[in-house]
UniProtKB/TrEMBL annotation:
Gene Ontology terms: cellular component: primosome complex
InterPro entries per UniProt: DEAD/DEAH_box_helicase_dom, Helicase_ATP-bd, Helicase_C-like, P-loop_NTPase, PriA, PriA_3primeBD, PriA_3primeBD_sf, PriA_C
Enzyme Commission number(s): 5.6.2.4
MF-aspect GO terms: 3'-5' DNA helicase activity; ATP binding; DNA binding; hydrolase activity; zinc ion binding
Species of provenance: Metabacillus arenae
Enzyme class: isomerase
Residues that coordinate or bind Zn(2+) 2: 520, 523, 538, 541
Segments forming domain Helicase ATP-binding: 283-449
Occurrences of domain Helicase C-terminal (ranges): 546-700
Pfam families for the chain: DEAD (PF00270), Helicase_C (PF00271), PriA_3primeBD (PF17764), PriA_C (PF18074), Zn_ribbon_PriA (PF18319)
Required cofactor names: Zn(2+)
Protein name, entry field: Replication restart protein PriA
Subunit comment: Component of the replication restart primosome.
The organism's taxonomic lineage, starting at the top: Bacteria, Bacillati, Bacillota, Bacilli, Bacillales
GO biological process terms held by the UniProt record: DNA recombination; DNA replication initiation; DNA replication, synthesis of primer; double-strand break repair
């Protein structure tokens, strides 16, 4: 193959296509589809992806590829196709789609190394390469300028002896560990000490230590030196004399290192589980792509069904992807997969460092694992023999990426499932309206689990009218019922989860005298109070300032923070229940790595009476001693400018309620609300998803929202408010004249947050059923404004399936 079509690393409209390059003769046969290469582009040298290699090109004067970034493809042929599909459906640049599929380490700064896969492989290397790797296991790529050498290295990679590794600069050190061990001494010598001259006292001492304490085992070199108080040069001496050998052992940066997972065995399934799993297994057996919606109440044993379905897939020698929301990617959840499948599992979540994520990704690429459990982007795991994709809590909005490419993991899953002829399982106790409607229409296969395992009762839910409390003179944030319930748990030594719906709440700062609210100078949003450091922060742009002592407007000293942040609840709790021990979990207490897990472990071990937190405690937690769940204010989310507000409220309340009474002790849920009669709150009482679905569907129909209409949101922003207004107006007009009569175009209007980072924001919404011209029309708009985008910092974002309306 003499030519390569390459997509270069420049996300602009003009470069959003392939460019042809000549493959220099020396690299013909070596450069493969999906590899990254270095190409000349204008004055620059850029990285690019080889989309195709071919015998001919219709272009005449072509430049040549100048460098190799990979020796094995980074992107599989399937993922290349998927990239084009993402580009088409989400209206992003092809390069953005490709990069979204790769771990950040491959984008970040890196040192490229050629590495010996294991010590035994050293012997198997070709002689020319062997001499390079005699003393080291890792050599910078740049050492092998010579193309013949590179060609040999490529062969070794195919044999599995060498690999290319990117060392993320600051992480390099953790990756490899130098260990020492006692060299095998020839039998005619009694002791290695004989080899040492008598004046080498320190070396003798160290050798003695090695004989007694290390032997044929391995010990980290650093430990050896510190335990013997030895120096690097003494160690060198011992190595030269053949008494001690050293080597570098590869250690994956394994975030779960040192943890032991007790092996768990498949449980005998309940009748409902059995009925759910058999159609899935059938689809695995017959290699049929089907989408299943597993609608099962919390605690109905969905996870056990996932585990056993996966087992069937692995038994067939295939691979599986399990997506769970970031927030519920808790150690508890990960443990369930690790204990069933052990080292066959890779885990991908945002808590991992760039290097750790890259290591997990490499395990997938090298087929060392068969199963990946991860958040949204794990959907791009480069498996080539997928047998199943599972999306747990399919209603979670975090499956939608809110930056380019604005994809929904569910759509990607279904696309990949189709390619691999394998089932996709969507699981939830509160499916999205869209998915449930599809299941009712027969597009998805509905699997229902109505009962909790062992017929444990669903927790009793009580809804408290907070207006009533106020009328009775209770001005605290705890109703009498909740307070009594809290007290009784403390007496009985049972535990409580207290949930604060923080979204839309935030503790803003207001002057009690003049009503002035402190806002971010760059965004139209009030600043949030953080007690730590007495700071005010903007959650959109990160602006920070110190909490003022007097009101900037009227100089009054009565300036206070309002709203019910978790810190404030904690303070209140300390007043009304001084004997209660509380663990608070929010962004502030969990920002340090590992703190999330530490707090949960502490609570699980009975380290506190109350776990107080935000969204991050709503999911996936399972503690036997939790018998009470309290929701401080159910309706804060209801009033957001979002057509899914009711759905999100219902889902969240149901999820939170599900944390109670999952084991022997029965559970109780107390929900406080100012609008208890709203169906999204009232219906949680009876765990009445079906009825909620019916009512919400009627509302969606009335207001022409999904699942009756698709929606597309355009957001236009610019530092000049007039410019934004005019452009948005023009875009709306253009849409109206180019789309069919059926489609509804709303706007231009200012966005719910009219200014972010000093940019004014307008939006315009399209509701449509079938709109053949939509993509074409939107592309026309983007092309038309291309220049403004480039020179004028106009920004147009198009979201084909928005979940955040702000
Ligand atoms: P879900 O994922 O639907 O919320 P889980 O899978 O977490 O439910 O199951 C709830 C509890 O029931 C877990 O503790 C689980 O170990 C247990 N469980 C699940 N299936 C069975 C079964 N077939 N027999 C006994 N216990 C089960
Ligand atoms: Zn701001
Ligand atoms: Zn004031």
């Amino acid at each position: 193959m003499k030519y390569a079509s390459v997509i270069v690393d420049v996300p602009t409209m003009q470069t959003d296509r392939t460019f042809d390059y000549k493959i220099p003769e020396k690299w013909q046969g070596m450069i493969l589809q999906g590899m990254r290469v270095i190409v000349p582009f204008g004055q620059r040298k850029l990285q690019g992806f080889v989309i195709e290699v071919k015998e001919e090109s219709s272009f005449k004067k072509l430049k040549s590829i100048e460098g190799l970034q990979d020796l094995t493809p980074s992107v599989t042929p399937e993922l290349l196709q998927l990239g084009s599909w993402l580009t088409e459906t989400t209206l992003c640049f092809n390069i953005s789609a490709l990069q979204a599929m790769l771990p950040a380490a491959m984008k970040a700064k890196y040192d490229k190394m050629i590495t010996l896969i294991s010590e035994e492989k050293r012997k198997e290397l070709e002689p020319t390469l062997k001499k390079y790797f005699e003393k080291q296991a890792e050599i910078p790529w740049s050492t092998f300028e010579d193309d013949d050498l590179l060609k040999q290295i490529q062969k070794e990679i195919q044999k599995g002896s060498l690999e290319v590794v990117y060392r993320v600069s600051q992480k390099t050190k953790q990756k490899k560990k130098r260990v020492v061990q006692l060299a095998q001494i020839q039998t005619d010598r009694n002791s290695p000490l004989d080899l040492l001259p008598s004046q080498a006292k320190k070396q003798k001492e160290m050798a003695q230590f090695a004989v007694e304490h290390i032997g044929s085992k391995e010990m980290p070199a650093s430990d050896f030196l510190s335990l013997t108080n030895g120096s690097e040069s003494s160690l060198k001496g011992l190595i030269q004399k053949g008494i001690i050998t050293e080597k570098w052992v590869e250690i994956y940066r394994d975030p779960y290192e040192g943890r032991h997972f007790k092996k768990s065995l498949p449980l005998p399934l309940t009748t409902e589980q059995q009925q759910s799993i058999s159609p899935i297994l059938e689809s695995v057996e017959n290699k049929l792509h089907k989408v299943f919606l597993m609608y099962g109440v919390t605690g109905s044993g969905k996870t056990e069904v996932y585990l056993q379905s996966i087992e069937a897939v692995l038994n067939k020698g295939k691979e599986a992807i399990v997506l769970v929301p970031e927030i519920s990617l808790t150690p508890q959840m990960v443990n369930r997969f690790k204990s069933r499948f052990g080292s066959m599992v890779a885990v991908l979540h945002s808590g991992l460092s760039i290097g750790e994520k890259y290591d997990e990704w490499r395990k997938i690429q090298r087929k060392e694992v068969k199963l990946v459990v991860g958040a949204r982007s794990a959907i791009f795991a480069p498996f080539e023999n997928l047998g199943m994709i599972i999306i747990d809590e399919e209603h979670e909005t975090s499956y939608k990426q809110e930056e380019t490419p604005r994809y929904h993991a569910r759509d990607v899953a279904i696309k990949r499932g189709d390619y691999h002829n394998c089932p996709v399982v969507l699981g939830s106790a509160t499916p999205t309206l869209e998915s449930f409607a599809r299941a009712q229409k027969g597009v998805y296969t509905l699997l229902t689990l109505k009962e909790r395992v062992n017929n444990r009762a669903m927790p009793a839910v009580e809804i408290i009218d907070m207006r009533e409390e106020l009328r009775n003179g209770n001005r605290s944030m705890f109703s009498e019922t909740l307070l009594e319930a809290l007290q009784s748990r403390i007496e009985k030594k049972e535990q409580t989860v207290l949930f604060l719906n923080k979204r839309g709440y935030s503790s803003f700062v207001m002057c009690r005298d003049c009503g002035y609210v402190i806002q971010c100078p760059h965004c139209d949003i009030s600043l949030t109070y953080h007690r730590f450091g007495q700071q005010l922060k903007c959650h959109y742009c990160g602006h920070e300032e110190i909490m003022p002592k007097v009101c900037p407007e009227c100089q009054s000293e009565h300036i206070r923070y309002f709203g019910t942040g978790t810190q404030k609840v904690e303070e209140e709790l300390a007043k009304v229940l001084p004997e209660a021990s509380v663990i608070r979990m929010d962004v502030d207490t969990t920002s340090k790595k590992g703190s999330h897990e530490r707090l949960l472990t502490k609570f699980g071990e009975g380290g506190a009476d109350i776990l107080l937190g935000t969204q991050m405690i709503a999911k996936g937690l399972d503690f036997p001693k939790v018998t009470l769940v309290g929701v401080l204010s159910a309706d804060t989310m209801l009033h957001l400018p979002d057509f899914r507000a009711a759905e999100k409220t219902f889902q969240l309340l149901t999820q939170v309620s599900g944390r109670a009474g999952r084991h022997e002790l029965p559970g109780e849920v107390i929900i406080q609300s100012y609008t208890p009669e709203h169906y999204s709150i009232e219906l949680t009482k009876e765990h009445h998803y079906d009825e909620f679905f019916r009512q919400e569907l009627a509302v969606r129909k009335l207001h022409e929202y999904p699942p009756y209409y698709y929606i597309c949101l355009l957001t236009i922003s610019h530092p000049d408010v007039l410019k934004v207004a005019i452009v948005t107006e023009n875009i709306s007009t253009f849409l109206k004249s180019n789309l069919s009569q059926q489609s509804i175009i709303l706007g231009p209007v200012t966005s719910p947050i009219p200014k972010i980072k000093d940019r004014y924001r307008y939006q315009c919404m399209i509701k449509y059923k079938k709109e053949k011209n939509l993509h074409g029309t939107l592309k026309n708009i983007l092309e038309h404004y291309q220049k403004d985008v480039h020179q004028n910092s106009l920004q147009i974002t198009i979201d084909m399936n928005p979940y955040v309306m702000l």
